[in-house]
Amino acid sequence: MPRNGARRQAVAQAAFKRNERIVLDILQAVGRPMKAYEILEQAYTEGVTAPMTIYRALAALIEAGHAAKIAGINAFVARVAGERKGPAAYFICRRCGEALERPLGDAMLNALFGEAADRLDTVIVEAYGACGRCAPAAKSRA
Ligand SMILES: [Zn+2]
């Protein structure tokens, strides 16, 4: 029985990883933040039909640093390769929906929060506006 249980768990793990792969592939292919239902629409052709499956895969991808949630628009985005570990700031274009990721290194967090930077457990830094392609002639704020 334990063998059977272990096998079932291994199968479940393999299935879970497959779903993570599907979700990450979709996020990377689209290249901008997506709502969970948009991901589900695209994952449907891969046989992923349950919203909970998408949310579980997203949670695992976020935990592993492969994806991030954009809280202000309740959407998810693939993280830039190589910048996956630490917290990041996002600039989201309201017109085309593209998100620009910038790493928030220790120096930046220390400058912002001083000694409290060591005790942060959640960092959400999001800026919204128009990207250079959508508003190339926008005046500077200065
Ligand atoms: Zn734009």
UniProtKB/TrEMBL annotation:
**Which SUPFAM superfamilies does this UniProt record tie to the protein?**
Winged helix' DNA-binding domain (SSF46785)
| UniProt cross-references to InterPro entries, sorted A to Z | WH-like_DNA-bd_sf, WH_DNA-bd_sf
Which Gene3D superfamilies does the annotation name?
Winged helix-like DNA-binding domain superfamily/Winged helix DNA-binding domain
Q: What is this protein called?
A: Fur family transcriptional regulator, zinc uptake regulator
